[in-house]
Input
Amino acid sequence: MSSALYDQNGKVISVGQGLRKVGEFSFTKKYWSFFWTLVPLSSTSWVDGKINKAVKEHNGAGVANLKIESAGCKYNGPLIIGFIPFIPGCINTTISGEIVK
Output
């Protein structure tokens, strides 16, 4: 998303110009829902906890170049099943980024 963060004075600093990469992270999770994602069955609260833990483990200050990828999973089945709202669907989501300091 962004290769920059704000410093303590509100000035924008970027990777290579005030920020240095100290690590990376990548997490993958399968999200389930009914009615074309209107009724989620999976929690999203795990995301910030995992990112914060990875930043702390690398003694970092934040995350730069955050990337979120998603794709339907094989459980969505044949095309016709996707039109039936009460059959749960799922999506594989990968969140990755660079830990910086």
